[in-house]
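Sequence decides. Consider this:

===
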Amino acid sequence: MPPIPGSGLAKGLAVTLRTMTRRSHTAQYPDAQPELPPRTRGVIGLFEENCTVCMLCARECPDWCIYIDSHKETVPAAVPGGRERSRNVLDRFAIDFSLCMYCGICIEVCPFDALFWSPEFEYAETDIRELTHERDKLREWMWTVPAPPALDPAAEEPKEIAAARKTAEKLAAAQAAQAGPDSTEQAAPPAEGGQA
């Protein structure tokens, strides 16, 4: 049976009429603050002490909105006769939030846990050039990052830990077998009077 002409239009208008009669959920934002979950993706906070200037975040960013400048610094030898080492020192770390699409790739690829999601979201500016935030502002947002959720005690143990435990038990059993029964007799405490 062919569809009745105009039935699609009638269905669409019925949805519109049903939606028009419902009450709107609009919040008057500046006056009423939204209730957001604690781990909301707001802005990116920088924990500067963990940053090694490896540039992974800047290289992996699809929008190229992370700007990092650094210089090499020579670290003297820790012991006399040792070698001097060089390390990167962070000079500038900035994120242009007018380009950022909040995908979180930079946070995921950071091997040293220097970047985190902060629930802050009120950073509107009147000039788009002011949306490039330097490391001082990113550091301020770091202190609003919530603590990670507690581990679930009922969760299954990671496979790596179970495998390491089995290996340690096998190694201990092999060492005990190699030591033999003689070592257990020698390890026994002496009887009263100092004689075995």
In short: The chain has a mean pLDDT of 87. The beta strands are 43-46, 66-75, 85-96, 115-118, 132-133. The two ends are 102 Å apart (CA to CA).
